[in-house]
Amino acid sequence: MKELKIGVVGCGNIFNLAHKPALKNIESIKVIACADIDGERAREGAKAFNAKAFQSLDEFLDLDFDVVEVLTPTYAHAEIAIKALKAGKHVIVEKPIALTTEEAEKMVQTAEKEELKLFVGHVRRFDKRWVQMKDVIRKRNILPMHIRKREVQNLPFPAHYWYWDENKSGGVALDLGVHVTDFLRWFFESEPLEVLGTGKAIKEEAKSNDTFDHFIMVVKFEGGKTGIAEVSWAYPYPSRYGVFYHHVDIIGKNGRIRYTPLDTPVVGVAKANFEMPRFSPLLSTFPDAFERELRHFFECIKKDIEPKVTAEDALIALEIAEKAKESARKGEVVRL
Amino acid sequence: MKKLNFGIISYAHPHALRYASTIAQSRRAKLCAISGDGANSDVAKGEAKKYGAKFYKNYEDLLKNKNVEAVYIAIETYRHKEVAIRAAEEGKHILLEKPIALTLEDADEVIKAAEKNDVKLMLPFNPRFTEPLIKAKGMIKAGEIGALEYIHAISENVKPPIFLQGLDMSWFLDINKSGGGGFMDTAPHGIDSLLWLTKSVPKKVFADIGAKIYGFPVDDIGTAVLEFKNGILAVLTAGWGNPKGYSYGLEIKYYLVGREGFLDVRTAYPDFTVYQDRAEKIYWDRPDVRGIVGSFVTAVLKDKDVPISGEDAKKNLAIILAAYESSRKGKVVHIDL
Questions:
Q1: Which residues are within 8 A (CB) of B285 and not within 5 positions of it... i.e. 6 or more apart?
Q2: Which of B103, B252, B228 is nearest to A266 (CA)?
Q3: Which CATH architecture best describes the domain B127-285+317-334?
């Protein structure tokens, strides 16, 4: 089997922190081009792989290679992914799949029409913790009925950064929300029926951008199962450590599973002058999860097989989060 | 020192065991009478013997005992109204197990009876008498975590029939007697903590409560999302979702998010764990029950206000009932408090 040739679009945070180290570790591929609207960043990225740097997307896509990794801010996912598919490349795009389900549907349709792969980086599905938890649930027949998952951090970026702009990131409800909505659907193995969403603007960055930085969803699934998602960029952790905090509580007909990194003190206090337990600065998962994800996607492309998490899964994860935002606006439950 | 003479009416609610031992150990109270109404009459009788208290088959006879000044009522919830009103009429001060009653109308009658007969009426919501939560409340007041923004409260217990062997708790599974299952049983504690910590009341609730785990005829787990008038957002999870082997047993926890800090409050009661074929937690002290009994005794003996009044408990019940309504209708319910 020939070596896959990869081009990267978007050489910012998620590229530098997660994808670059992972791509470097994978032997069976070669990164041949890096593109970014910021020429300096493109050159920086390209240098790491001895690849070509591009500022123009069209010139980048004219090049002959197999897979495009779309690692740009969310609002640019759909346009770039669709162009890449039309240019005959397979696409791996970071989560959320797109800013809206409408855009995401177009991406899925384009991939089908072009008979090319479209994969979405739902990296939680490759995280050892959750993979093993899922495995234990299956082996011990836990039958989850109630899952609470919290994914929270103190987002360390200033107010002008794209994350804080609803029109660019979709806000925390989408950006972290899709991780949890996908997690719930993955663990319940059921389809969602309706969702209640409610949010708050806690930090100044959220208030000045008229977005939420703290968001709750109650998602009801088929079979009386309920998921509670809490996502936040406003947890008052010291941002210089980039602490990202997960908490999972699963209550099933045959048992309970919980995971929390904070489980010893009677009153645990996290303030700016404390260092909290952490595993990887600024990342919400282990670096090897990204590597496992990318290896899996590359293998699926080479062998033409179905991935563990499909673009349709990503689309539904987005739909739940989108409806949760709609629910928060209306103050009422929204059906899916 | 003047001691308050206590009677305990019924051992239907297992908390009676804890209250009996606490009252009996108190330097300011004396356990002098126990009645065996409702479930667990035999247990009540055995306890009377153990504490040297006079045993009555029914509460009417206990209420006629002039020596009894105050009663702790642990009878099945559907009889709270009847018994509390009669106790008030007989001039006994009342410590009434939660929830106050099955309906708001019944709660009103209980409150009115206490007022009319000039007796104290207190409801026991335990967590605000636990040391970690008192500490957290103090830290919030001192501004240590900035303005309070979000609370996730957890009030979860183990599956009830397994929890206490030798006690008949089947009435907890009869909605006509208990008013609800795991959520009705444990959520009032979380609600009380939320009212106490936020110093506000919710204006909206959305809840999902159901018989999800055990196949009981009543709900066993519930979640409520509450928006408070002062802008604080809260999620409360409550019920009986903890399996037998869950090492945390009874779990009363709070995650408190302020603008400038985060408090992680857990392990409500001091314990140690015994490991044999299974792990068992032994609560070697219950400062919450001591605090409840102590403050009630003080209110009666010194004629002061009780820390948790009938009105507070009625408000609590209104929120619980609104949560059930929301779950039934699948809609957000507005609360007018």
A1: B269, B270
A2: B252
A3: 2-Layer Sandwich (3.30)
> Which of A214, A248, A251 best tests the B interface by mutation, with the highest count of B CBs <10 A?
A251
- pLDDT given at position B174: 95
Q: Please name the member of A214, A225, A271 whose beta carbon is closest to the beta carbon of B150.
A: A214
Three-state secondary structure call for residue A122: coil
Q: Which of B146, B149, B206 sits opposite A200 (nearest CB)?
A: B149
Closest-CA residue of chain A to B227: A198
pLDDT digits (tens, 9 = 90+) for A20-72: 999 999 999 999 999 999 999 999 999 999 999 999 999 999 999 999 999 99
Dist. CA A329–CA B219, nearest whole Å: 30
On chain A, the residues whose CB falls within 8 A of the CB of B132 are 266-267
For the packed helices B287-301 and B15-25, what is the interaxial angle rounded to 10 degrees?
60
Q: List CB contacts (< 8 A) between A271 and chain B.
A: 144-145, 260-261
With cut-offs at 50, 70 and 90, classify the pLDDT of residue A219: very high
Contact call for A200 and B233, based on CB within 8 A: yes
Q: Give the mean pLDDT per block of 10 residues along chain B (337 residues).
A: 94 95 96 97 97 97 98 98 98 98 98 98 94 92 95 88 73 96 96 97 98 94 98 97 76 91 79 69 80 97 97 98 98 96
**Which chain A residues touch B213 with a CB distance below 8 Å?**
145-146, 251-253
SS3 B144: coil
Please give the residue of chain A at the shortest CA–CA distance from B261: A236
Q: How far are the Cα atoms of A82, A218, A258, B285 from residue B247, in angstroms, in the given order?
A: 51, 27, 11, 18
Q: Which of A226, A265, A267 sits opposite B223 (nearest CB)?
A: A226
Q: Where are the domains of chain B?
A: 4-122, 127-285+317-334
Measured between beta carbons, the chain B residues lying within 8 angstroms of A213 are none
pLDDT at A217 over 90: yes
| Percent residues over pLDDT 70 in chain A | 91
Judging by beta carbons within 10 Å of its beta carbon (0-12, 13-18, 19+), is residue B118 exposed, middle or buried?
Answer: exposed
Cβ burial of B320 (10 Å; 0-12, 13-18, 19+) is buried
pLDDT value at residue B273: 67
Residue A239, pLDDT above cutoff 60: no
Nearest to B236 by CA among B156, B144, B122: B156
Using a CB-CB cut-off of 8 Å, the residues of chain A touching B206 are 196, 198, 218, 333
Res A268 pLDDT > 70: no
Catalogue all structural domains in chain A, each as residue range(s) with its CATH number.
4-120 (3.40.50.720), 125-287+318-335 (3.30.360.10)
Indicate which of B133, B134, B162, B264 best probes the interface with A, i.e. most A CBs within 10 Å of its own CB. Answer: B264
Homologous superfamily (CATH) for B4-122: NAD(P)-binding Rossmann-like Domain (3.40.50.720)
Q: Is the ipTM of this complex over 0.90?
A: no
On whether the CB atoms of residues A104 and A118 are closer than 8 A, the answer is: no
